[in-house]
Amino acid sequence: MRRSAQEPTQCRDRCSCRSGLCIAIATALVAGMLVTPAAAASPPLKPPVIHEKFTPLPCPKTPKTTVDLEGCAEKAILTTDRAINAKVKTIFGLLRARAARQSFVTSELAWLLKATLSQH
Description:
Blueprint: H1 6-33, H2 66-94, H3 98-118
Helix pairs in contact: 1-3
C-alpha cells in the first residue's frame, strides 16, 4: 500500500496540535492547583456547553442526496449535544461546593477535548 506525500504532514500537524493542547491543559490544571484565597472569590463557575462549529444543513423528511444525509447527521449531532448539555447542567446544579464544581468542569472539558481529538 502506497502512502501519499500528504500523510506525514497531516500526522505532524495533528501531533503538534495534540501536543499544544496537552501543554495548554497541563498549564490550566497546574494553574488551578495554585488557586489563592483571593481567586476563591472569583465569579461563579458555569457548566461547560458543547458548541458545534458547523452551520447545520437542512434535513428533509426523505433524504436523497449526500448533502441531505449530512444535514440529517448534523441534526442528530445537535440533538445529542442538547441532551448532553441538559444533563451537564443538571449535574452541575446538584454540586454545591466550588471544589466539586471545579472538578466537574475540569473533567467535562477534558472529555470534550478527547472527543474533539478523536474526530480528527
